[in-house]
Amino acid sequence: MMKEIKIFSPATVANVSCGFDVLGFCLDGIGDEIIVRKVDKKGIYISKIEGYDLPFEADKNVAGVSALALLKEANPDCGFEIEIYKHIKPGSGIGSSSASASGSVFAINELLGKPFNKTQLTYFAMQGEKLASQSEHADNVAPGIFGGFTLVKSLQPLEILEIPTPNDLYATIIHPQIEIKTSESRAMLPKEIPMQDAIKQWANVGSLIHALHTSNYELISRSLQDVIVEPYRSKLIPFYNEVKNQSINSGALGCGISGSGPSVFALSKGIETAKKVASAMINVYSETNIGFETYVSKINVEGIRILNR
Amino acid sequence: MMKEIKIFSPATVANVSCGFDVLGFCLDGIGDEIIVRKVDKKGIYISKIEGYDLPFEADKNVAGVSALALLKEANPDCGFEIEIYKHIKPGSGIGSSSASASGSVFAINELLGKPFNKTQLTYFAMQGEKLASQSEHADNVAPGIFGGFTLVKSLQPLEILEIPTPNDLYATIIHPQIEIKTSESRAMLPKEIPMQDAIKQWANVGSLIHALHTSNYELISRSLQDVIVEPYRSKLIPFYNEVKNQSINSGALGCGISGSGPSVFALSKGIETAKKVASAMINVYSETNIGFETYVSKINVEGIRILNR
C-alpha cells in the first residue's frame, strides 16, 4: 500500500468573463505542492506550511476542512499528515484556497485507492472553499480537479461538465499586489440585474461553450464579454481598463477579472501572443507603484497531478 | 434563368426553456408553402394568400416587408410575385410570421442566384418579424433559415451559431387554440431579474449547448429548465402544468413554452416517445373545452427547403 504522495495542485481562473459563478479553467506552472502521508492515528494533522502564514488546526485550514469532509465519508482506519508548500498567494484571485482544499482531498483519495470520483472530490473541496469564501462554490475547485475548462451546471445536485479545451489556448495572468476580499467583492454585486443584460450574458455563455467545442478562436474572442459583473468589480482593480485594452491590442482573444480579482486573466491563441500580452500587462503596472506578478500558462487539461509517490 | 420557385418554410420553436431570446430549433411537417415568381415590374406583389386572412399590401405583410428589405439591398432589375399558402396559424407560438418572413426572402434569394448568405437572409426576415412582434428578433427566423438548433449570439452585429442536433431528437408540439399576443406576453416579463436565477439560467444554456454537442440526451433533459420566463408566461396557458407533468411522465426529456406561447413543446429521444408524449398532451386537453392541434416532428436540420423550381 502507498504511504505517501506528493501532488501539484494548480491555480485556476473562475468566471471567465461571461460565466460568472459557473465557468472556470485550470492553469499550469503556478500551484501549491502538497505532501500527504498516512499515519496510524485517525484524523488530519497539518505538520508543515511553507510560503504563507496559515492556520495549522485542521478545522481552520481549508485543506484540513476538505480533508475532514472526506474522512467523515470514508471513515478509514488511519489518519493523514499534510505538508503544504503554498505558492499561490491567498487572496490573489486565482484559486489559492481552492488549490489547497482540492489538493489535500485528491492526495488522500489516491492513498485510499481512489474510492471517490472527481465530482465527489469537488464536493469535499467545496467544504474547504466555504471556510475561505463563506459560501459554497465550485468554480475554482472543479477546474483544478477535472482540468481544462469546466462548467458547474448545478450545485444541488453537484454536476460538473468537462468542456473541451482547444489545443493552442494559453492564459496570461497578472496579479497586482493589492487586497480584495472575496466576501466584499461579492457584496458589491447587485441582487437584481436587467433582463436584457442577462440575455446577452447567457448568449455569450452558450457561444463560448460552442466555441470551445469547435476550437473557434475568433468566436472565443467574441464570447469573452461580461456585461454583468465586470462593470462593478473592475472598479476595485486599479488600471483595469488599461490592462484590458493593452492586452486586446497585443492580440489577446479576451481579458477579464480572474474570480473576484485582483488578478486579471487574458486568453490568447499561441504562446507567443500570450507572452506579448504579458509584456503589455507588465508595461501598464511598471508605470505605477503597484507590485505585480505575471504568469503565462497553457490551459492545463490534466488538473491536479501526482509528482511522486 | 429560374423564373419561379416553390419552397416549404417550416415552423420553429424559440427560447427552448433556458435560452430565452437566443435559442431556437426547426420543425418539420408543419410550415408555410410559398411560391415566388419573377415579374418584369420592380417591387413585391402578393397575389395570393390561402389559409388565413392576412394583408395583401406588401408593406403590411411580414413576407412582403422582409422581401422589400432584401430588394432594397439587392436592387434587382425585376420584381417578384408571391403566393402564400399559410399552414401555420398566426399567433400559435411556433413562428408563423417568421416562417412567412423567412420563406419569401429565401425564395427570392434563390431566384436571384443566391447573392446573400444565411445571416443576411436572417437580417431581412427579421425586418418582417418586426412588423408582427414590434421588436427585432431572430430566435424563430434563424432556425428556419439555418435548420437545426441555432443560437443568436448577438443582434448587433447579427451573429447566428449553428449548434449540432443529436440524431434521435424529436419534438412534440401542442397548440391550444387560445390567443396570446406576443407583445402582451413580452410586457408581462420583469425588466429586472434575480442574479441567482440568471446564474442558473446561463448554467443551463451552457449545459444545453454542451449536451447538444455531445448528444447527451440525459443532460439535454437536465438542461431544459427555465427559471426566468416560464413562471410568468405559464400562467397564460391553461393546463400548462398538467401538460408539462404528463409529458415528462411519458418520457419527454423536457417540456416548455414554445416562443411566447400558447404552443407547448416537448423534446424526446426517439419518435416512439415523442408520440407517447403527444398522446399524453392530447389527454390533458381532451378533458377541457379548449380545441388543440398536435404535431410530432424530427428536428429539421435542413430548414427551409425547395419543393420545386
Reconstruct the topology from this structure.
The structure is a homodimer of 309-residue chains.
Chain A lengths: L3 E11 L8 E17 L3 E8 L11 H13 L4 E7 L10 H16 L6 H16 L7 H6 L2 E6 L4 E5 L5 E8 L5 H6 L4 E3 H19 L3 H7 L6 H4 L6 H10 L4 E4 L6 E6 L1 H16 L5 E7 L6 E4 L1
Q: Can you walk me through this structure?
A:
- 2 copies of one chain form a homodimer.
- Chain A is α+β, with helices and mostly antiparallel strands.
- Chain A has 2 domains: 4-164 and 301-308, Ribosomal Protein S5, domain 2 (2-Layer Sandwich), CATH 3.30.230.10; 169-298, 2-Layer Sandwich (Alpha-Beta Plaits).
- The first copy, chain A, has helices at residues 62-74, 96-111, 118-133, 141-146, 182-187, 195-213, 217-223, 230-233, 240-249, 271-286; strands spanning 4-14, 23-39, 43-50, 79-85, 149-154, 159-163, 169-176, 192-194, 254-257, 264-269, 292-298, 305-308.
- In chain A, strands 1, 2, 3, 4, 5, 6 and 12 form a 7-stranded mixed β-sheet that branches. Chain A has a 4-stranded antiparallel β-sheet with strand order 9-10-7-11, with helices on both faces.
- In chain A, helix 6 (195-213) packs antiparallel against helix 7 (217-223) and helix 9 packs antiparallel against helix 10 (271-286).
- The radius of gyration of chain A is 19 Å and the shape is globular.
- Strand 8 of chain A pairs antiparallel with strand 8 of chain B.
Instruction: Please tell me the total number of domains of chain A.
Output: 2
Give the rounded overall mean pLDDT of chain A: 96
Secondary structure category of chain A: alpha+beta
Order of helices and strands of chain A: EEEHEHHHEEEHEHHHHEEHEE
